[in-house]
Amino acid sequence: MTLTLLYQDEHLVAIDKPPGLLVHRTQLAAGEDEAALQLLRDQLGRPVWPVHRLDRGTSGVLLFALSTEVASLLGAMFEQGLMQKSYLALARGWPQEDAGLIDHPLARDPEQPSAGQTMLAAQTRWRVLERIEWALATDPRFPNTRVALLEAEPLQGRRHQIRRHLKHIAHPILGDATHGKGPLNRAVAAFLGTQRLWLHARELKLVHPVTGSPLQLEAQPGATWPGIDRDWTG
Questions:
Q1: What is the per-residue pLDDT for 113?
Q2: Exposure of 201 by Cβ count < 10 A (0-12 exposed, 13-18 middle, 19+ buried)?
Q3: Is the Cβ–Cβ distance between 175 and 195 less than 8 Å?
């Protein structure tokens, strides 16, 4: 696999991560040989350091440092909330409002019961880009399925933050096996002919940690995304 490079200089590099690709190898997916870190290292012929993470199913902008010093600087920027992140998501149903802010604390580890865990502050801004209706019956009460194309901006970087927050407001992301609905996900996958988590890291804005210049890294979702009939940059 050849990764698509979105930006590269002597300090950092950004790629457009395809859905289903791990950021780095892990014991939780011991049977997987391919991961973005190793693929990018081999493609560039030099070491690279990941400075943030995307879930395996999420596609889009993924940033790497080209030295430990820059990795430390970028890591601190992520921790301090100095990055502006924008995602696209296909969510179940139509929100009543056109935009909103989800302010809902999240347990540190989403894979463990929340009781007894430290609760971390988490806010996600969202807005509806398009309301879509498919001729797909996934509920016997309705002949069609309503889907919303959303823009989501997490103000922190909690694990599964967007996925958990959209579930919290009863609009889970389609294809989310952990926080969504299995029957709906399977019906949508058959309808679209594609099985994936419909979450895409579209944009990452930051100040370059070395030069101080503003950077705007973008990865468009492509024609496979339902509802994408123009460049959603506005």
A1: 74
A2: buried
A3: yes
For domain 4-218, say whether CATH 3.30.2350.10 is its number: yes
* pLDDT more than 90, % of the chain: 77
The one catalytic residue in 33, 55, 103, 231 is 55
Question: Does residue 20 have a pLDDT over 80?
Answer: yes
Nearest Cα to Cα of residue 95 among 57, 55, 58, 125: 125
Q: CB atoms < 10 A from the CB of 66, how many? A: 18
φ, ψ dihedrals at 150, nearest 5°: -115, 150
Residue 46: count other Cβ atoms within 10 Å of its Cβ. 11
In the block, residue with structure tokens 């010093």: 69
User: Residue 147: pLDDT above 90?
Assistant: yes
User: Left (φ > 0), alpha (ψ -120 to 50) or beta: where does 210 sit?
Assistant: alpha
> What Å distances lie between residue 104 and 3, 76, 82, 101, 158, CA to CA?
35, 24, 20, 9, 11
- Domain residue extents for the chain: 4-218
Question: Measured between alpha carbons, how far is residue 79 from residues 83, 142, 186 in Å?
Answer: 9, 44, 36
| Tokens 């780095």 found at | 24
| Tokens found for residue 189 | 């996958």
- Does the annotation count 55 as an active-site position? yes
Token pair in block for residue 119: 């609760």
